[in-house]
Design a protein that fits this description.
By secondary structure, this protein is mainly α. It has 15 helices and two strands. Among the domains are: 44-153, Endonuclease III, domain 1 (Orthogonal Bundle), CATH 1.10.340.30; 236-296, no CATH class. It has helices at 6-33, 44-53, 59-71, 77-82, 85-91, 98-116, 120-124, 128-136, 143-153, 163-171, 181-196, 199-210, 217-220, 239-257, 261-264, and strands at residues 272-274, 294-296. Strands 1-2 form a two-stranded antiparallel sheet.
Length: 304
Amino acid sequence: MSRISPQNEKGREKEKVKEKEILRYYRALSRAWGAQHWWPAKSRFEVIVGAYLTQNTAWTNVEQALANLRSAESLSVEGIREIPQGRLERLIRPSGYFRQKAQRLKMFVTFLDDKHGGSLERLFSQPTGKLREELLGLNGVGPETADSILLYAGNHPVFVVDAYTRRILDRHGILPEKTDYEEIRESFEKALATAAREPEASLANAAARQAPGIRGAAHAFPTGRRPRAPCRFITPCEERACRRRRLLICARVACQARFWVRWLGLLDGWVVRGLGRGEGCGACGRPALSRSAIRVVPGRRHDG
């Protein structure tokens, strides 16, 4: 009978510690923020188009391109199939690299027609691993884009790793920022598999299955705006700085961390507190938010 070497045993222990740390963050964020209803879309295909357009650009630019497609009644499989490529390029120009992206959207629709009869239902009914390989074989689809499509459009249980994920993991000493994409993804999926079996996740998942369509921001809220989540550590002197960075830190980081939104029925926001030096609040003495550093803290709400 083969014995496990001390090095392998130590490596497994380190992995378990990392997984427990990830799970601890997940639970703290879930309690603090609840579901964020990301990705903002009204259909599965809109999620796919958004995943292509968001490459190398800000989401505000993607929103302009999507609005152009919607106005032209081309934000559908049929619309992208029939629209001339030159006009498609003009419509998505705000997202940047519009010629490449127009060509890739056309190629995706061709792939969908040839392999799955133009049906997104047939596409997403495949096993996760097989579908992921097919998506990665398409021109312009990397791991992050493929996983975004799988998770947000197809409701497959995968974890999307982006720059925000890497930055937070590195800052908290869990994994270096340059860690391989697949290693980070596997670590999160192993850690969050435990959360998926918890009773509250099962209830949330059941509620998600009952909700029709894509539960994106604009779809879930008729006004097209998500309700702003409260900052847990805001004081009078922090209000202005926190307001400017809340979208970037609390909403964008959390939503792009993408904790298995549809599969778990939950997505977490990041609770933040400044680590750098700054002037304290005159009312309560708490430090102001730092421009240089943030950290996640599962703490009590402070009504300064």
